[in-house]
């Protein structure tokens, strides 16, 4: 009897496998994307304070591929992609919000606050499991980190 893993279980296994490799290379594992039955596995990495070079992605991709050849939780063919999270990188942990304090962000929460689920502003301080978002009108709102479904940096366009 074949046991099928859920996408979440596969993502957890991939994170377990990749995190030590990334750490060893001085990289941060930002995120892993996979959908059950999908034909891709995406691994997003960063090098805090420096960014990621193409060589970083290639080197980690080779290491991941070798490990997945021996211990692969995905039962069908797929493409492995290793890349930078980009300028609009996702924010997953309180440390991410602290690192990018002052930067523009879009946050979606699971439970509405004042009838609203989406907040766009700048990241303020982080404390006691909450992040402060300074909204466009200079008002601010405190959002529980545990209720954040999705958060991404917004790209700031420089005015000439």
Short description:
The chain is built from three helices and eight strands, in the order H-E-E-H-E-H-E-E-E-E-E. It has helices spanning 7-24, 54-70, 94-99; strands spanning 28-33, 40-46, 79-83, 104-113, 116-127, 130-135, 140-144, 148-153.
Record keyword descriptors for this entry.
single chain, about 160 residues, alpha+beta, GMP Synthetase, Chain A, domain 3, SH3 type barrels, 2 domains, 5-stranded antiparallel sheet, 3-stranded mixed sheet, 8 strands
Outline the structure in words.
- The strands form 2 sheets. A 5-stranded antiparallel beta sheet has the order 7-6-5-4-8. It has a 3-stranded mixed beta sheet with strand order 1-2-3.
- Helix 1 (7-24) crosses helix 2.
- It has 160 residues and is an alpha+beta fold.
- It folds into 2 domains: 7-83, GMP Synthetase, Chain A, domain 3; 94-153, SH3 type barrels, CATH 2.30.30.
- The termini are far apart.
- It has 3 helices and 8 strands; from the N terminus they run αββαβαβββββ.
């Amino acid at each position: 009897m074949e046991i099928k893993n859920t996408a979440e279980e596969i993502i957890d296994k991939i994170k377990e496998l990749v995190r030590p490799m990334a750490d060893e290379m001085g990289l941060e594992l930002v995120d892993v994307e996979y959908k059950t039955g999908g034909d891709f596995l995406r691994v997003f990495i960063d090098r805090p304070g420096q960014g990621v070079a193409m060589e970083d992605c290639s080197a980690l991709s080779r290491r991941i591929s070798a490990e997945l050849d021996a211990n692969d939780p995905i039962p069908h063919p797929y493409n492995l992609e290793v890349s930078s999270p980009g300028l609009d990188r996702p924010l997953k942990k309180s440390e991410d919000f602290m690192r990018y304090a002052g930067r523009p962000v879009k946050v979606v929460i699971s439970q509405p606050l004042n009838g609203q689920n989406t907040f766009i502003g700048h990241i303020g301080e982080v404390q006691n499991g909450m992040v402060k978002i300074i909204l466009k009108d200079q008002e601010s709102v405190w959002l529980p980190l545990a209720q954040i479904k999705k958060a991404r940096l917004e790209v700031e366009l420089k005015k000439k």
